[in-house]
Amino acid sequence: MVRSLILETTFLIDLEREESKGVAGPAVSFLEAHESARMYLTFTAAGELAAGLSLGDRELWDAVAYRMPVVTRNIEPFSRVPGVQVKTY
Description:
5 helices; 89 residues; alpha/beta; four-stranded parallel β-sheet; single chain
């Protein structure tokens, strides 16, 4: 079982959309399936959400630096970086 996860911006946006619609979708299901894991939000993701824009590949570096799996459905950019683990939902 994964102990620590980085919650990527795409995941957080999907989670917020599910919450606002009152519908438990794949993001909520992922959280329920990993309730014992520690969830982390990087400064990059927090900044993107606060600013309402994407900082591009910066989250790739966060994934490498923190050495934790990244939760996202946007797999392609992370698959280009050797050693980065991705958990999708």
